[in-house]
Specification:
Elements: H1 3-8, E1 11-13, E2 18-19, E3 23-30, E4 33-40, H2 43-55, E5 63-66, E6 73-76, H3 84-89, H4 93-108, E7 119-120, H5 121-124, H6 128-135, H7 137-151, E8 156-159, E9 168-171, E10 175-178, E11 184-187, H8 193-196, H9 201-204, H10 207-221, H11 225-244, H12 254-270
Helix pairs in contact: 4-10, 6-7, 7-11, 11-12
Length: 271
């Protein structure tokens, strides 16, 4: 399946192929540079490839080749070391968070012109209201917040959509670069929510850590902390709603609702 791209783009195989839930990948060399040949197997991944191509390496892995029809892409190959996840879990949580915030700011600064296909946040949140009507409770609170926030979005930019510790990798030549976007469009505050939920629940679910990092993120990224917390309630309720409407309804959503409650408690403290 890789042969046509290896020949057409004059790539050299540089490792063993592997798969994810959404792509087939092969380490290659492109003009002597380490790279990854990525063949998407789902539409969401094809859309992500178009966004990576649009970024042109500004804060993200560089795209060396891109086939619009199939979504096949050749990406700059990055290193998993140093690891921001391990940094956060080993006493350098604030340092990792600052790096992530700086990376997001760089990504958001690209002018929103000649955009690729993107999901608006309104479309992203479409599952929440129906599930909130069915389940009530925290979901209903999250849906009310989402309705208000979506109607009054500020600093609207192209969003990564899945910004967290394992989607920011290292390049010796270019520093920290993002991979694997969802491809969303909306208020930039939304992109920082997952930082509060990562790198793993045992750390992120601690109330003191949650409160501290919400202050740090707001400061580093120049955000309104109240809106960050409100978006966090809204999105974690949406994430829980996705579980409730799926076949795995009995096996997920609890952690999302814990984060929704943590954010709601911080909002209550603010009055």
């Amino acid at each position: 399946m890789f042969d046509a791209y290896l020949e057409g783009w004059k790539l050299e195989v540089d490792g063993e192929p592997f798969e994810t839930h959404s792509s087939k990948l092969l380490p290659v060399r492109h003009q002597a540079r380490p790279a990854l040949l990525k063949l998407p197997t789902v539409d969401e991944e094809r859309q992500a490839g178009q966004l990576m191509f649009w970024w042109q390496g500004q804060g993200a892995a560089q795209v060396y080749e891109f086939d619009q029809s199939s979504g096949a892409i050749v990406l700059e190959r990055l290193s998993t070391e140093p690891s921001l996840k391990q940094m956060a879990l080993n006493g350098r949580d604030d340092e990792a968070m600052r790096i992530l915030c700086q990376a997001a700011v760089k990504l958001h600064n690209k002018p929103a012109q000649n955009l690729p296909p993107l999901f608006t946040l309104e479309r992203w949140f479409q599952s929440l209201a129906p599930m909130a009507a069915r389940h009530g409770g925290m979901l209903r609170y999250g849906a009310r917040l989402a309705e208000r926030l979506l109607a009054d979005q500020r600093d609207v930019v192209v969003l990564h959509g899945d910004l967290h510790h394992e989607n920011l990798l290292w390049s010796e030549q270019r520093g920290w670069l993002l991979i694997d976007p969802k491809g969303l469009y909306g208020e930039r505050t939304f992109d920082y929510i997952n930082l509060l939920r990562n790198p793993q629940f045992e750390l992120a679910g601690q109330p003191a850590r949650f409160a501290h990092q919400s202050w740090l993120i707001a400061q580093e990224a120049g955000l309104d902390r109240r809106r960050l917390l409100e978006w966090t309630v809204a999105f974690t309720c949406l994430s829980a709603a996705w579980y409730f409407e799926s076949e795995n309804a009995d096996h997920g959503g609890d952690e999302d609702l814990i984060f929704a409650h943590l954010a709601a408690m911080e909002l209550e403290k603010m009055g």
